[in-house]
Prior knowledge:
Number of domains: 1
Amino acid sequence: MNWYGTGISSFFRVKDERAFRDEMNEIGGVEIVYEDSKDEHPIRRFALLDGYGEGWPSYMEYENENGNMVQDEDFYFFGAVSMHLEDGEVAVFQEIGAEGHRYVSGYSIAINNAGEELVVDIHEIFEKIKEAGWNAPEQR
């Protein structure tokens, strides 16, 4: 059985629209959506959607000097997005998926333009139940 997931981000502003679009298109696996504010001087904000039902990109391929496709070992999707955020901007990415009705997983990650992140995993609820002194159900 395969794992299938989906991801969506909040809307956020970027420093350079063209550079952001170019990099996201090069990475692939994401759909770029945007909205413009209704102000006199509209502000464009972007959001990303997981494009393949496999969650956020976890690798990037490129052609090396020999013409072979290789994976970039240092690639980190959220770091790539973070570099494009305007100063003070925060983007939140959420992903949820499952392998059938088992191995349900999900998390939210907030990133800022300084490369800092906050992560919350759905399985943390079991720790919170214990911390509250409640009777925790068995985790599947």
